[in-house]
Amino acid sequence: MTPPDLKTLLGDDRWMRRVAQGLLRNPHDAEDAVQDAWLAEIQGGRTLAQQRRGWLRGVLWNRASGVVRRERVLRERALDVGRERAVSSAPSSAEDAAAREVKRVVAEALLDLDDDLRTAVHLTYFADLSTREVAARTGVSPTAVRKRLAR
After folding, report:
1. DSSP-derived secondary structure letter, 4
2. What is the pTM of this model?
3. C-alpha 24: how far from its chain's center?
4. Helices 6-24, 52-88: inter-axial angle, 10-degree rounding
5. Residue 92: phi, psi to the nearest 5?
6. Torsion angle of alpha carbons 129, 132, 134, 138, nearest 10°?
7. What is the pLDDT along the chain (151 residues), one digit of tens a residue?
8. What is the C-alpha separation between 138 and 117, in angstroms, rounded?
9. DSSP 84-149
């Protein structure tokens, strides 16, 4: 089997980059996958009976699968660490009392506000609505909501 010419290699490189981008989405991981595929070809990993692009696609697929597997393991480990921290960082009774006091002070401050201000603050910070959503619910412009929140 004769080695491919430069034009074929450049075409294969562009093709491999498109395939890798489609598989991985992350440009850095895609570039690494392309480099791994070229390295595998240089090291003579395919047999003469295999078609070149099919073999290169397989190398890219294997690389992408490894990246996805590694990312899933890292996410699972991060979730496990988060769960362990949540369990080990249960608030003490003093922290509970302080949190209740803060909630009481905030509730009293909210009750002291005018209705339109209280509604804007409650919907934004407690119901987690955007300025546009608050404006739609209260029948005022988003600018009015922002001004109420600023007050």
Report:
1. P
2. 0.41
3. 14
4. 30
5. -80, 170
6. -160
7. 566 667 777 888 888 888 888 888 788 888 888 888 888 877 776 654 457 788 888 888 888 888 888 888 888 888 887 777 666 666 677 777 887 887 887 778 777 888 888 888 888 887 888 889 889 988 999 899 888 888 8
8. 11
9. HHHHHTPPPHHHHHHHHHHHHHHHHHHHHS-HHHHHHHIIIIIS---HHHHHHHHTS-HHHHHHHH
